[in-house]
Amino acid sequence: MSNSTKIDFIYLSEQDMIKAGVTNMPECVDAMEEMFRLLHSGDYRMAGENNDSHGAMVTFPEESPFPTMPKPTADRRLMAMPAYLGGDFQTCGVKWYGSNIANREKGLPRSILMFILNDIDTGAPLAYMSANLLSAYRTGAVPGVGARYLARKDSKVIGLLGPGVMGKTAVAAFMAECPDIDTIKVKGRGKTSLDSFMTWVAASFPQITKVEVVDSIEDVVRGSDIVTYCNSGETGDPSTYPEVKREWVKPGAFLAMPAYCRLDAGMERSDVRKVLDNTGLYQAWFEEVPKPAHQYIPIIGVRFMDMVDEGKVTMNELEDLGEIVAGVSPGRKNDEEIVVMSVGGMPVEDVAWGTKIYRNAIDKGLGVTLNLWETPELS
């Protein structure tokens, strides 16, 4: 057994991450499925009192005496998302990111993310990695896990609101799970993003024979077997969040919602199945913000927590994806049921996919080796 105090770790650029397989969506969906089994068994930890917190965010006041302090503009976030994941992962890590919607004016992504992976025993760094693709693919893969268990396998039509990065990865995950898909109906804000999306679809999925640009959210939803809202915007007034109306939704549809939205009264009824990717995540969010919580956190699962608080549903009526993956609760029950799944985003997802990519990188000899120290100056 070595007593060496030397610590090296690897730096993985975005190109290194690609070479290590970060864009391999089928494998990412498998990794997320494995992660959900561990969530169900409890072999994980995130931040917060209930070990399910999304993370810790720096917020800025509306008015500040410091002229250089950032304003709380749309998507202005500085956030750390730590987690530990057990099972065959046995790693921990933290994603750190800054986000500003004005980045687009500079030709940059809205969010710029990095991830550090650590040894769970010593806490020593294993890797420091570019995390925009890591985060995008793990986010898209969760709707893919949902589709694996809750979408009709003969699904043919995707309805997509928001053809950006999140929209692309969600589509990639749906394609991995429902190979009969041949049509996408998409609504975007501008020609640039729509053209980019259509070029990407043509290059990535030649089996998709029709991409229809539609003018309304209703057109996105009507006739679609799988619906996903991947849009971005300002929070605070749920009446401005894009809506889903029951009359638009096809019997048997699966709706995976990783972005802000609201449901009409018909969609909130008990005959629509309501699935959370991690019940504890929404309970943590609900405790952390004023009420109604959906005003502050626009994810639909937070609205479900408000509904519990208002006595409109019980916790027993909300289903947990981990329980479905573990076989404790049923997947799709019949071809006619409508299922809405909330996708909140969790740091355990970054740890899961980051660990897989790190191990691939080691096997392939990728990345730049960096030295932390030969011997620590202080010990």
What does this structure look like?
This protein is an alpha/beta fold and 379 residues long. It has ten helices and 18 strands. It has helices spanning 14-19, 25-41, 132-150, 165-177, 191-204, 217-221, 279-288, 300-309, 321-325, 347-364; strands spanning 7-12, 44-46, 56-58, 77-85, 91-99, 111-119, 125-130, 157-161, 183-187, 210-213, 226-229, 243-244, 254-257, 262-263, 273-276, 318-320, 339-342, 368-373. The strands form three sheets. Strands 1, 2, 3, 4, 5, 6, 7 and 18 form an eight-stranded mixed β-sheet that branches. The protein has an eight-stranded parallel β-sheet with strand order 10-9-8-11-13-17-15-16, with helices on both faces. It has a two-stranded parallel sheet with strand order 12-14. Helix 3 packs parallel to helix 4 and helix 7 (279-288) crosses helix 8 (300-309). The longest helix is centred in the middle third of the chain and has 19 residues, at 132-150. It is globular, with a radius of gyration of 21 Å. The two termini are 20 Å apart. The model has no long low-confidence stretch (mean pLDDT 96).
